[in-house]
Amino acid sequence: MRSVCSVCALLLLCAGAQADGLRMLAQRSPLAGAQFHRLAEVWPQLSVGDPLTLEREPDNRHDRRAVKVLWRGIMIGYLPRAANFEAADEMDAGARLSARIGRLAPDPDPWKRLRVDVWVELAR
Question: Which GO MF terms are attached to this record (predicted)?
Answer without folding.
Answer: hydrolase activity, acting on acid anhydrides, in phosphorus-containing anhydrides; nucleic acid binding; zinc ion binding
